[in-house]
Amino acid sequence: MRVRRLTDVGIERLGTFLDSLTSAAPEPVPTMLLSDPATSEALEVELHVDRATFARRFEAAHYMYEHLAALRTSEFGQLERDPGVWAWLALFWFDQLCPAGVDGSRKPGERARWVPSFDEARRYYRHLLLGPYLIYKRYADDPDAAMALLCTKLQAPGDIVEQFVSRPQLVTCPAAVAVATKLYHVPDGTFRRGAAGKDGGSARRLADVLMQFDKTYDLYALTAEGLMNLLPREFDRFRAPATRPVSAARVG
Amino acid sequence: MNRRFNFTGRRKIGRADARVTVSVAADGPPAFSAQLDLGDYKLPTDAPVFIEAYRQTSLMRFPWGTVGDARPADGCELTEFGTGEGVRFRVKVVESASGNGHGRPARLLAMADRLSPRRVVEAVEQAESLLAVEWADIDEVWRLQFDQDGTDEPILQVSRRLVTDRQALVRSEQFVSLVLPEIFRSVLERVLLADGEAESDSSDDWRSQWLRMARRLPGMGVPPPADDDHREELEGWIESCVGAFARSFKTGRRFSEWWTGEEES
To answer: A139: which residues sit within 8 A by CB, 6+ positions away?
Structure first.
């Protein structure tokens, strides 16, 4: 399907639909908004997407990076910050982003997950598609290094994402992101036990420690190895690679 | 009362000494220039300087010579950013390789962070305002936001959907007479009641700048101590400031002129 943008009316209708999901009378997914001229409009560039399914944020981000390449050009770059575009995409993949439970109910969560707030530093990354896309874009040269921020399911980014992406000093620092991946991500796609939570060595603690380092060191000049060597002993248990697959850790 | 502790000796570069301007041309990516005045910070002249431009997950880092010779090494085009809107800057002075004889990572010697640039296209020759005005994707016409990047600096957000000329809006008689006094009140309440800061360790801190403006209003002076024991006095002082502000800006006359068409007698 050709990508469009939701108009103000379309975004408002999307909001009404999302609100209905937590009411006594949930509405069906309003897919008509995607093509109705009253609620959507064509873009200045032709982009196409299909009903691909994505196992993780990583696959979704990669897909968008490939299919929405025009957004990275100077000619159409403004579309990358167009809330209507990302709201349209979120509605297009709604069933995947907000699957119905066994009782048919859906839990859409906050509005920022569906309509991005570019001007709010602590909300923009919560958009379920824009968030992983921006991270993948940042680390497109080596996206595996950012796997800690991309390995979870689309609809449940998880605490590690929240801890890192909410802090621009960390999410933009290749060494910091690579360290998070080295410490917490295991190749079978899960997180190591103990990565979540508030205990010593957890991702939350790592974010706090790195923020302190950011006040002392030129963080961007460090390699991942150099940064790893600075970490206190509380992170020792995560330094060694996992010796056997671990069961899925709940980090959401 | 909030206090800040700096155990590293890192110096804070004042905003007046790190001024960044973003130029938005009709074609091509935005570019920036920076004027740095690092002479008063007692920094080693061979210490490298870097300027980082960032927005959300994007960052570009520009070598900027040394303290003794601060200038860009290459071009300053912000190619990672489709538009210059919302881009912030950070200036870092870093320990030189010769100054670090212990094999440890280079330390920060001085830094200025969360610098909002002047925008040449959208704010040509505009006098600096204490209140930054930005476009926002919001449903209301305007909203006062305290910067979520950590400085809590007040930012006036204007709906890009509802308003075509944000500068015209904030200069309009309606806005000045109806909104500005309340914005002033909100900022003072934030500084004195929420943050509990009557002083700052830097004259460039936005809190100090707003308090200086308040103290200079006719009839005003130094505010009461910013602590719970003086809360009532603080609230009274704030109300007096707002009244003085309204009188200084003649909001009553301005309101009457557009509301009834008659001048206030």
So the answer is: A145, A146, A174, A177
Helical ranges in A111-202 per DSSP H: 130-138, 159-165, 168-171, 174-184
A&B contacts, CB < 8 Å: 89
Q: Do B157 and A119 touch (CB under 8 A)?
A: yes
Asked whether residue B123 carries a pLDDT value surpassing 50, the answer given is: no
Residue B103's pLDDT band (boundaries 50, 70, 90)?
low
**Chain A residue numbers touching B31 (CB-CB < 8 A):** none
Task: Strand B31-36: give its sheet, edge to edge.
Answer: B31-36, B18-23, B118-119
In this structure, chain A runs to a length of 252
User: Does residue A245 surpass a pLDDT of 70?
Assistant: no
Q: What is the rounded CA–CA span in Å between residue A30 and residue A17?
A: 7
ipTM of model: 0.83
Specify whether the backbone of B86 is left (phi greater than 0), alpha (psi in -120 to 50) or beta: left
> Of B54, B108, B161, which is closest to A8 when you measure between CB atoms?
B161
Query: B26 is written with which tokens?
Result: 């009709």
Q: Which residues contact A111 (CB under 8 A, 6 or more apart)?
A: A15, A18
- pLDDT above 90: residue B248: no
